[in-house]
UniProtKB/TrEMBL annotation:
Residues 386-487 are annotated as: Disordered. SUPFAM superfamilies: YgbK-like. This is 3-oxo-tetronate kinase. Residues 386-411 have a biased composition (Low complexity). The keyword Cell wall biogenesis/degradation does not apply. Belongs to the four-carbon acid sugar kinase family. The keyword Transferase applies. It comes from Streptomyces alboflavus. Residues 440-460 have a biased composition (Pro residues). Its EC number is 2.7.1.217.
């Protein structure tokens, strides 16, 4: 069984989707599963979503090792560390430190890795990372609010984060197939090389790499290589999806904290459709609870039965406005205020009857999932490229987390009509069984208390919020909101 440790929520759902699309019955946990949960019953792949991408390295390492321990207790022998296809990180980490810790724990001699994910427009050639054909440092990722990427050289980026030797597996070797890659890895490992960044331009390259790493204890990368590994994995028999659409017809809302170029395009489309749109302004109101309160007041004032479509609450802005906010509040504080406020808004919307939350942004989705107390999910069909539907437990809302970086251009995406909170009937539709996977699907996992939280169904993963990222007086985590009816 394959175990995946992912550094954020959207990355985790991205990789889970890649595994599911390759036919592996895949379960996704938000946070490290509790010790007495048997997440592997009936699963061929288990994904643990952490919120460690932007945390201090020691926290990211500890969380990743906690996830590894739990996965191993449940029979996982092969581990994939999922990081972002745009290598989102700082010079301190967290990709290098987490790789080092996992490689030591698994006694992995040399680790094959690549952020290449051609399905999402990411390719690696001669160790350079391209985003839709543009070098990473020239792509919109250079403006990321927290991890701006200003270098396209993957060896240079990784070497800044680890002392261990890093080399490339060049495209010619990858193209020569799995045996050639295996030989190159063995030869490099014998010379003491520890990380091999593999070029990959298309799905055939990723499959060659997946087959080459089929027996490796540790492999790493984005969703692309995970798909290659799944292709090489035994099992993979789950080839049909139930046709039911779990996301249809329930009250919906869109929450966006991503400032990616793609998200801004998507928001433009929603505005052009005439949807009610509310922008969070953390400079005008830096208290997360009050900021959330203002947004919920706006939501409550929407006319009942508005045909305009699902309302949108966002903080997404282009680079100019982003820098203005960050100058006023500091980048970390702005992010912390907005993440906490967005979690509170998600909880408030669910309390008002919203049952479908579309969340844009990895950190943002992490806050939403934590605030809603969603602890695990079976993976369903992609609602759109890089936009995942899942059936969560406990189930205050169905959700769909979108990775702005990898999601589809905004063409026809159209959440259903908005039905405002005050006039809603009681509980929304219930999820009677895991969606999509049909009769062979095992029962959903029990709720997963995060280490350090009170065990039991009311607890949920605690996202990382360092004291410096918390707004003054903020508890660091919004209160959990329970579904008004049974899950
Ligand atoms: N207007 C804003 N000003 C400052 N920071 C912002 C603003 N809007 C969003 N952010 C922060 O930027 C970060 C975006 O990260 P994330 O949600 O992971 O999106 P992405 O998937 O695009 O990386 C979050 O921490 C979010 O709170
Ligand atoms: O690999 C990717 O690009 C995605 O799976 C991913 O990690 C998305 O992160 P966000 O852009 O923060 O949503």
């Amino acid at each position: 069984m394959l175990g995946v440790i992912a550094d954020d929520v959207t990355g985790a759902s991205d990789v889970a989707l890649a595994l599911r699309a390759s036919g592996l019955r895949t379960v996704l946990y938000f946070g490290v599963p509790d010790a007495d949960v048997a997440p592997t019953d009936g699963c061929e792949a288990v994904v643990v979503a952490l919120k460690s991408r932007m945390a201090p390295p020691p926290y990211a390492v500890a969380e990743s090792l906690g996830a590894l321990r739990r996965l191993r207790e449940h029979g996982v022998r092969q581990v994939y560390f999922k990081f972002c296809s745009t290598f989102d990180s700082t010079a301190d980490g967290n990709i290098g430190p987490v790789l080092d810790a996992l490689a030591d724990a698994l006694d992995a001699p040399a680790v094959l890795l690549t952020p290449s994910s051609p399905e999402h427009g990411r390719t690696q050639y001669e160790g350079q990372l391209f985003v839709n054909g543009v070098p990473l440092a020239e792509s919109p990722m250079r403006h990321h609010p927290v991890t701006p990427m200003t270098d396209s050289s993957l060896p240079r980026l990784l070497r800044a984060q680890t002392d261990r030797p890093v080399e490339l597996v060049r495209w010619g070797t990858v193209r020569a197939g799995a045996d050639a890659v295996r030989a190159a890895v063995a030869e490099a490992a014998a010379r003491g090389v520890r990380y091999l960044l593999a070029d990959a331009l298309d799905v055939d390259d990723l499959r060659a790499l997946g087959h080459a790493a089929a027996d490796a204890a540790l492999t790493a990368g984005a969703a692309g290589l995970a798909g290659g590994l799944a292709h090489a994995a035994p099992g993979g028999a789950l080839d049909t999806y139930e046709e039911k659409d779990p996301l249809a017809a329930w009250p919906a809302a869109v929450l966006s904290g991503s400032c990616s170029a793609r998200t801004l395009q998507q928001l433009d489309v929603l505005r052009a459709q005439g949807r009610p749109v509310y922008r969070l302004d953390p400079v005008a109101e830096p208290d997360p609870a009050a900021l959330a309160g203002r947004a919920l007041d706006w939501y409550d004032a929407l006319p009942p039965g508005s045909p305009a479509g699902a309302p949108v609450i966002h903080s997404s802005v282009g680079p100019g406005e982003l820098h203005a906010v960050q100058r006023a509040l500091g980048a970390e504080r702005a992010a912390a205020v907005l993440e906490e406020a967005t979690g509170r808004i998600a909880a408030g919307l669910v309390a008002r009857g919203v049952r479908r939350v579309v969340a844009a942004g990895g950190e943002t989705s992490g806050s939403v999932v934590a605030a809603l107390g969603i602890t695990g999910a079976w993976i369903g069909r992609a609602a759109a490229p890089a936009c995942r539907g899942s059936a969560p437990r406990p189930a205050p809302a169905s959700r769909c987390c979108s990775s702005p970086a990898t999601s589809a251009p905004p063409t026809s995406w159209r959440p259903r009509r908005h039905r405002p909170g005050p006039n809603l009937p009681g509980p929304g539709p219930r999820l009677r069984k895991p969606l999509h996977d049909g009769p062979r699907t095992p029962p959903l996992p029990r709720p997963l208390p995060h280490p350090g939280t009170t065990p039991g169904p009311a607890s949920h993963p605690r996202p990382y919020l360092s004291p410096s990222r918390r707004a003054p007086g903020s508890p660091g985590r919004p209160p959990s909101t329970r579904h008004p009816g049974p899950a």
